[in-house]
Q: What sequence folds into this?
């Protein structure tokens, strides 16, 4: 499996553990609590976000079903976030743990972008896959969102 | 191996000052993970093994004027000939340049001028 150098194995394991704990216990992680831990923050309810969560909503646009795994379009944007010199979205990283190549790219931004937005096409393995996006804010740390896609024919 | 490696930039027709514009970069470059799904007598479960070196676009650097505003680190998980789209805030009339580096550290670049229509 290929990991990007910008996310450590420890962080990945911690995120997986948080996800499993959340699923098994039915608990959700409040951003304030997650921030205290200094790792990943989540938007608890995207339909009713608080002010901090609203800024950090990550929009992931993927097809529900992708017929060709060699060419799966993806659009990721953090549209509500300011892009000011002292407060901006520094990077967006895309991961998919079901694929042989886990890291799908790291996209770095600066205030000159005006908005953290990237559209690309990816190779994905066949089957049901969860695509994870991690957006790093210069002030509020890393925020995570995910979206599912069903790939008919694997493209790896 | 002579593969076509090029990049083209497309800017919106009309650009106003301080507007956030979408820029598209069409990169012509093959991409392959070099992985193959195999099933052997010893191992009944299919697994990926490396059968060839990976071929991919490694980095895409975006410069606005003389300043780097974005760097995209990519790998073999990108498709063949990807069409990248990203946004910039058009704060001044200056060239936008994109420098693409592949797995062999070969580079190609393209440049277009960000010009305001209402200037």
A:
């Amino acid at each position: 499996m290929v990991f990007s150098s910008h996310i450590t194995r420890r962080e990945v394991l911690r995120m997986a553990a948080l996800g499993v704990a959340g699923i098994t216990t039915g608990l959700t992680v409040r951003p304030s609590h997650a921030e205290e831990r200094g790792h990943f923050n989540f938007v608890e309810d995207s339909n009713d976000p608080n002010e901090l969560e609203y800024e950090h909503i990550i929009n992931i646009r993927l097809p529900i079903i992708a017929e060709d795994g060699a060419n799966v379009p993806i659009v990721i944007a953090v549209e509500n976030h300011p892009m000011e010199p002292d407060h901006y979205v520094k990077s967006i990283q895309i991961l998919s743990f079901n694929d042989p190549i886990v890291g799908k790219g790291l996209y770095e931004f600066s205030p000159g972008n005006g908005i953290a937005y990237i559209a690309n096409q990816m190779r994905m393995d066949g089957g049901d896959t969860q695509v994870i996006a991690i957006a790093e804010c210069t002030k509020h740390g890393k925020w995570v969102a995910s979206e599912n896609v069903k790939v008919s024919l694997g493209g790896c | 191996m002579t593969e076509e490696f090029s990049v083209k930039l497309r800017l919106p027709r009309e650009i106003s000052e301080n507007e956030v514009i979408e820029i598209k970069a069409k990169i012509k470059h093959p991409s392959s993970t070099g992985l193959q799904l195999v099933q052997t007598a010893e191992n009944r479960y299919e697994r990926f093994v490396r059968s060839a070196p990976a071929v991919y676009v490694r980095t895409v650097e975006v410069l606005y004027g003389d300043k780097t505003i974005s760097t995209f680190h990519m790998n073999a998980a990108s498709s063949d000939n990807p069409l990248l789209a990203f946004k910039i805030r058009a704060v001044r009339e200056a060239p936008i340049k994109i420098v693409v580096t592949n797995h062999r550290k070969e580079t190609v670049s393209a440049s277009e001028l960000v010009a305001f229509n209402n200037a």
